[in-house]
Amino acid sequence: MDDKATKDRYIETVGRRKTAVARVRITPSSKTTFLVNDKELEVYFPTTEMQNIVTEAFADIAGKFKVTAVIKGGGMHSQSEALRHGIARALVENNGELRKTLKKAGYLKRDPRAKERRKFGLKKARKAPQWSKR
What we know:
Helix content is about 35%, strand content about 20%. It is an alpha+beta fold. The protein has a five-stranded mixed beta sheet with strand order 1-2-5-3-4. The protein is elongated, with a radius of gyration of 19 Å.
């Protein structure tokens, strides 16, 4: 019974970017697999750029994991970065020695940049209407 309990253990974390939120679960496995919103990684993120963003956190990790994620909000690029953030957090929770390398790469930081709100009297967040003296 004790073996099964450790085998089925998973680590759940949350990754965020802009308005995208990724709930990530990693489970030790024989090979690294991804399941994002019940779809394969290649199906959910069709471009190789976004697939690379997601897998960057696994760059020099020896262990293999099954990654399942539920992502809501944001655009495709923000979702891939939110997923990377969640994976990095989960890997650190699994093995604390990875913290230094992942932090140096910038994967543990929740990127705070987001679209600035529009202010009244302005056309956009900062663009003012054309001003004329007379």
